[in-house]
Amino acid sequence: MKILHSEETNCPVSWPAGVAECSLSWVTLIPIAITCFTRGLDIRKEKADVLCPGDCPLDEFSVFGNIVYASVSSVCGAAIHRGVIGNSGGPVRIYSLPGRENYSSVVANGIQSQTLSRWSASFTVTKGRSGTQEATGRAVSTARPATGKRLKKTPEKKAGNKDCKADIAFLIDGSFNIGQRRFNLQKNFVGKVALMLGIGTEGPHVGLVQASEHPKIEFYLKNFTSAKDVLFAIKEVGFRGGNSNTGKALKHTAQKFFTADAGVRKGIPKVVVVFIDGWPSDDIEEAGIVAREFGVNVFIVSVAKPIPEELGMVQDVAFVDKAVCRNNGFFSYHMPNWFGTTKYVKPLVQKLCAHEQMMCSKTCYNSVNIAFLIDGSSSVGDSNFRLMLEFVSNIAKTFEISDIGAKIAAVQFTYDQRTEFSFTDYSTKENVLAVIRNIRYMSGGTATGDAISFTVRNVFGPMRDSPNKNFLVIVTDGQSYDDVRGPAAAAHDADKKLPQNHQARVEANIQTQAVWLSPRLTTLSWNCHENHVIHQGNTLQVLTFGSNLEYIPLYNNVL
User: Which segment of 35-49, 167-181, 453-467, 529-543 scores lowest on mean pLDDT?
Assistant: First the structure.
């Protein structure tokens, strides 16, 4: 009996003596070069040798499971997670496996894998072979490798709809009340909405939570950044049954879904779209309050409202008005049933993309326009001027600066004025802080009044239609040589849209604290209560921080 010790042949493992031997040939296997983000589903083979590049960003991998991974996982991420390769890359062998349920979450080798309730295909990985020879059970001559590497093109990540920036959780009804058939119709509608949103790296991100006896997060914001993957993930969600417990699910979503680890982005509105078939089986008002406290905009999509005969079974007939972000009609949406819902997709998408209407996202960290009016006069001196810039930077870096969030501008003044940068010049915190550090000292006289008028006209003027609150922070070291009271009062009266009591309420929630930096210069830390909501409006506030270490409304005082 002859024994063949090769594990990679089509020959029998053994055969009787005297029987013609199975012919063996040897071929050189060349791994397929892939990228850091090639997924298991991109490799359409039952078994394949691939080559992972080095220095992949560990925190950007999407990996679902442990040992057995969902096919939507990154191959290289899974290989590092399992310890097959290090972050320097290397050859990996991937084996396709059937789909399964309950992919587990495990931290290994610097990668946190994620849970996934279900996926249609899986894979596992082992150490690969780079350019080695393997036996094949065919009577052929040794095959020569093809010239060059075989490159597999991976799907390019799409930026998405940049005009629709939102982090959205679809909270779907998975109760016995909706049933399996309407549950599938609900998923179809959510898929259509997701497709029209324009999901992408720079557009909206979406996740899914199912409300049932116990709420379940099906997938998070960071799991998928393409509409194709999201649609597939929605399709894979299974019906859970039980009571709807919408209030319980909404509270769970507000508290557990919108976290940095789960992919929530700073400065981007947080949105929950709650689908209710009929009416909720528990109290939803308290959950709405919790969501608002967490800065989450709650939309209610109600389907098949209760008929008069059913109202006696409804715990609170005004549940929609009490749960939404604002009871103004914008955050509630109704469909008569789950059939013929295509015409309802676009109007809902338009609401979800209207970031300026997301009232519950607005805090004093992300909904202000702050212009710094910086004294560049000779009496300040270069060293103190640098301290001024540090002071301005310390304030600016506490805000969520983005094209739809907080905006920063700076003007330097002496007898003349120079716009260092306007509100629309920079939309990231990094760029704003960099340009502040590089402001050059002008030197000259001090004309604060003229500088206020210049800033109101040239910096705040173009922002008149902005939904953000406007603040002017004046950093100066002493007496102005021109009138300040008139320009300050004019700036204060620049917009009369809001009543005086509303304006005073906003002022009362902006806390300041001053600390000496020099005999003439002060600094402050700008503190906001995390959950404080600033309502829409455009009243200009004029602030200064003088040498008496107090917050001074400039329109009532002359420096």
Answer: 529-543
d(CA 530, CA 152): 47
Supply the CATH number for residue 323's domain.
3.40.50.410
CB 362 within 8 A of CB 469: no
Confidence of residue 549 (pLDDT cuts 50, 70, 90): very low
Q: Which of 290, 278, 217, 204 shows the shortest CA–CA distance to 247?
A: 290
What was the pLDDT predicted at 308?
67
pTM: 0.52
> What is the spatial distance between Cα 341 and Cα 163, in angstroms, rounded to a whole number?
24
CA distances from 482 to 251, 355, 486, 552 (A): 56, 42, 10, 18
How confident is the model over 400-436, as pLDDT tens digits? 888 777 899 999 999 999 999 999 999 889 999 999 9
Task: Report in angstroms the alpha-carbon separations of 75 from 42, 94, 334.
Answer: 9, 8, 43
Whether the pLDDT of residue 558 is over 70: the answer is: no
Strands (E), 378-510: 407-413, 417-421, 469-475
Which residue is associated with the tokens 């890359």?
Answer: 89
E strands, 493-536, are 511-516, 522-527
For 283-313, the pLDDT digits (tens) are 888 899 889 888 899 999 989 876 666 666 6
Sheet with 417-421, strands from edge to edge, namely 417-421, 407-413, 368-375, 469-475, 540-545, 551-553
How many independent structural domains does the chain possess? 3
Tell me which H or E stretch contains 47. Answer: strand 47-52
Is 323 in the same domain as 376? no
Q: Give the SS3 label for residue 113.
A: coil
Tell whether 484 and 510 lie within a shared domain. Answer: yes
CA torsion through residues 98, 99, 105, 110, sign: positive
Displacement of CA 43 from its chain's centroid (Å) = 29
pLDDT at res. 559: 30
pLDDT tens track for 508-545 = 222 222 223 333 333 333 444 433 333 323 333 333 33
**In terms of pLDDT, which residue wins out, 548 or 432?**
432
Residue ranges in 242-295 assigned as alpha helix (H): 246-252, 285-293
Do 267 and 351 lie in a common domain? yes
- Helices within 205-297 (DSSP H only): 227-236, 246-252, 285-293
Instruction: Choose the final residue of a domain: 316, 335, 359.
Output: 359
Largest CA distance in the chain: 113
Write out the two tokens for 257. 């879904």
Q: Among residues 379, 453, 445, which one has the least CA distance to residue 411?
A: 453
Tell me the C-alpha distance between 507 and 510, whole Å.
5
Continuous segment of H or E residues that includes residue 59: none
The Cα 38–Cα 17 span in angstroms is 48
Asked if the model's pLDDT at residue 335 lies above 50, the reply is yes
Same domain, 299 and 177: yes
Q: Is 477 exposed, middle or buried (0-12, 13-18, 19+ CB in 10 A)?
A: buried
